Amino acid sequence: MQKDSLWQAVLGEIELSISRGNFLTWFKNTELLNADDSTIIIGVPNVFIKQQLERKYNPLISSLLEKNGLSPKSIEYKIRSMNIKPSYDDPVVFGKAASLEEEVPKLSGSSLAHSYRQGLNERYTFDNFVVGASNELAFAACQAITQTPGKKYNPLFLYGGVGIGKTHLIQAVGNSLNEEKKGLRILYISTEQFVQEFVDALRFRKTADFAGFYRSADVLIVDDIQFIAGKEKIQEEFFHTFNALHQANKQIIISSDKPPKDIPTLEERLRSRFNWGMSIDMQAPDFETRCAIIQAKALGHEVTLSTDVIEYLSNNIPTNIRELEGALNQLLAFCEMRSLEPSLAVATSLLGTTKSRPKHLSARQIIERTSRHFQVPMDDILGPKRDKDIVFPRQIAMYMLRSELHLSFPKIARELGRKDHTTAIHSVEKIDKQSRLDPSLRQTIADIKERLYA
Ligand code: ADP
Ligand code: MG
Questions:
Q1: Which CATH code is given to the segment(s) 1-82?
Q2: Contact 126, 172 (CB under 8 A)
């Protein structure tokens, strides 16, 4: 019997022996990939279905295969690579919307047309964004914009370090508006792509089309604007786009890895415009928020993780959520391939080696690293001196003992040779507050952490 018809026969019988709902859920997209005397390989669409078939339906499948003349030694379930079509890659051909055709010149089938697109990725939504202290302000502002785009916070300027959810949030605004305010023209573009398109437009003498395209937006979302630094022509172009949109009360949303004042060689007139609306400094999520994110992402894979694994991941990857997601995916894939439970032991051996991160940082290591960073001798940090050059690194060390090791204040004080733990409270609070306002301080802390975990 042919593979396909054999599998159809088996499916037919399964359909008769279980409920319709179960049949559709677990068997709809399965196929027989290989059938010989020793091994049967059944293709399945995802981990969840694979696990369910292995755990629950294997005896049934095995007996039905046998009934149809096959008695293999083993049955394997293999996840087929699925063709998930990334909708954000679908080009929005310029001039498609009838109402726009009169206002803006059409691209005449030029080589440029294909590169203009709406740019949104449906995977980024408000629903799957975990809100915590570090991002609640940004989250609230983004949500407010979806209520009344162009009215409040224009432009909205979000800035903060890498992998903390800026792109996710600003894309979520676009996706939410796409759903709730149909008919609005929403464009998302990374600054790198904006620059590239502009260069192409110059080369093909299509700058009017380029300008027309972006000025036709009702909502323009520009990601990673720091890449505009040092590019005079594109700054000029963006300035005009900004003005045209802003004057027409169209919403502009911008993200950056630093505040406008720290973007080098940014024209003053753009800098001042970026400050017209609302600027929000996004922080890396704290420990609890990172745990919640891991939990949510694991559930997305239909996996429930134990608390110790969640805390291990959260502790080991402290700043970048993209990295955190990468580690989680690595762990799940590893366990899935070997049919292991994602336990702490597996996580430690897998991520401990690949990232070569120390499993347990000691207080000593943190103080040492901080003293080295500031080139202040350990003895001074631990000693009684109160010079500014020494007090500051000492405060940073206290802050890091709190943020990295979650030590109590009395313990922090003791580690630094202080008797009074109110100094520790005061120091941690001070650095915490100051780091929210001062990106260079945040960078300093990130540098020390980087070294610590390297
Ligand atoms: P950035 O643009 O700040 O560099 P991204 O928005 O690309 O960071 O975020 C990196 C990854 O982390 C994305 O996959 C994003 O979905 C995820 N992520 C970041 N913050 C959150 C959050 N609060 N909740 C859920 N996922 C998050
Ligand atoms: Mg980004």
A1: 3.30.300.180
A2: yes
Closest-lying ligand 1 atom to the alpha carbon of residue 296: 25
Count of CB atoms situated within 10 Å of the CB of 211: 18
* Buried-state track 139-149, b at ≥16 Cβ within 10 A, e below 16: bebbebbbeeb
Other CB atoms within a 10 A radius of the CB of residue 85 amount to 8
Topology classification of domain 363-453: Chromosomal Replication Initiator Protein Dnaa; Chain: A; (1.10.1750)
Question: In this structure, which residue's CA is closest to atom 23 in ligand 1?
Answer: 130
pLDDT at 379 over 50: yes
Q: Calculate how far, in angstroms, residue 167's C-alpha sits from the geometric centre of ligand 2.
A: 4
Q: For the chain, where do the domains classified as CATH 3.30.300.180 start and end?
A: 1-82
Average pLDDT value for residue range 120-130: 93
pTM above 0.85, yes or no: no
Q: Which DSSP string do the residues of 5-53 spell out, in sequence order?
A: HHHHHHHHHHHHHS-HHHHHHHHTT-EEEEE-SSEEEEEESSHHHHHHI
DSSP 162: T
Provide the 10 A C-beta neighbour count for residue 117.
17
Question: pLDDT tens digit string along 193-215?
Answer: 899 889 888 888 888 989 999 99
CATH topology of domain 91-281: Rossmann fold (3.40.50)
d(CA 326, CA 337): 16
Q: Which two three-digit tokens encode residue 342? A: 């994602």
**CA of 328 relative to ligand 1 center, distance in Å:** 14
Q: CA nearest 449: which of 359, 391, 348, 366?
A: 366
Cis status of the peptide bond prior to 384, with omega within 30 of 0: no
Per-residue pLDDT at 306 exceeds 50: yes
Pocket test for ligand 1, best of 221, 321, 329 (most atoms within 8 A of CB): 321
pLDDT tens digit sequence for 227-285: 998 888 999 999 999 999 999 999 999 999 999 999 988 889 999 999 999 999 999 99
User: Between β-strands 251-256 and 186-190, what pairing exists: parallel, antiparallel or unpaired?
Assistant: unpaired
The residues of the chain that CATH labels 3.40.50.300 are: 91-281
> What is the C-alpha separation between 430 and 4, in angstroms, rounded?
68
